[in-house]
């Protein structure tokens, strides 16, 4: 809606994972249709018919849409609550994804044409669903095959290209469908033959050779624990800032799309329970960021493959680290304790990788190092040393003199700031010669201020002194005297 300027009519469900509750949520959000795998259908029947037909094998007419109806616990239909379901062509999609169908546009178009039920006079829609990376990443030049087929080959066969919304508007469902509940009554997905166990443990989908997939269950349990802890914190803290914390969390997408001060002001004007100062806004935004990352850490590919040490699972752990870090910053450091305990039970198949906890701790170390590097780069930039510096004694002395000169000539917060940044950089880099010369200039700066200092300049000088590692007798008292002289 933000990008295209109108409300969407549908959304792609990750892994086409769906249950009756999922479809109910789509109706709540105003969606008109959904795309599923034919193997997720359970039963079908014509409108008005009494008897259902078994469709669980996926062998039914997928060239038309079906209506899914919401029902109450007694099985009675709820008025006005239905959703159209399109089922993609399973064999066609498999051929494109795995059997090399994207090598030749003529063969591709021939296969699409063969999917139509010839002799039928009813409107038909043939659709295919595959991963986007099929075209180019998995199959080189597959994108060119697809482009040529749509531009030329399909037209030659009289096949019209339409989108789902257009087809649905012209041809509403004339039949109904119910979908499979899955073995655990949690729904089904296109990439797991066991409901949705691939994302919580209990199946062998995605396994490689003798690799154990037992890490999936504790990883899911660990993230569930962290999610619940974050949700409890948000519920308790969110009411301090928002009239309706749930609505504010959902509307946070507006801020993610537009980080401008105006967008932030509009957001808080609409959702804040009171006028918030800078600190209040910062804490409220931290809570929202915590909720965002607690959702991102469930990205589906984190469980998709054979080991927790793969990049997909590690990315989920990075999101978890952001969630836990924010919880700690908000004053709830112990809330992640259960998460860490469960994570230790998720063992990698590679002995050197250890457990999920070891991988997580490695991520924390990487984050800490990256922040140290970023801080150092910022200090060097603030000191005008983006390209680094020569650490030899002569060059260090010259650099210290150059940076300290303006501060000695006219001490102020602005002239002292480069000196402060250079001192921080020298300490981080372990540059003893540069640190020594900067310490000497601090002594000179303090001695030269005999006629008094403005309060702001004195505060900057005090910060410089606290980082210098040297001792000046009665520094604090003498600095106060300099301020009083002024």
List keywords for this structure.
mainly alpha; single chain; 6 strands; 7% strand; 486 residues; 3-stranded antiparallel beta sheet; 50% helix
Fold and architecture overview:
This protein has 486 residues and is mostly helical. The chain is 50% helix and 7% strand. It has 18 helices and six strands. It has helices at 20-28, 90-98, 105-114, 142-156, 164-170, 216-238, 245-251, 253-257, 261-271, 278-296, 311-329, 337-343, 356-382, 393-409, 413-429, 432-448, 455-468, 475-485, and strands spanning 33-36, 41-46, 53-54, 66-71, 77-87, 175-179. The strands form two sheets. A three-stranded mixed sheet has the order 1-5-4, sandwiched between helices. Strands 3-2-6 form a three-stranded antiparallel sheet, with no helix packed on it. β4 (66-71) and β5 (77-87) form a beta hairpin. α6 runs antiparallel to α10 (278-296), α6 runs parallel beside α11 and α15 (413-429) runs parallel beside α17. The two termini are 60 Å apart. 29% of the residues are buried.
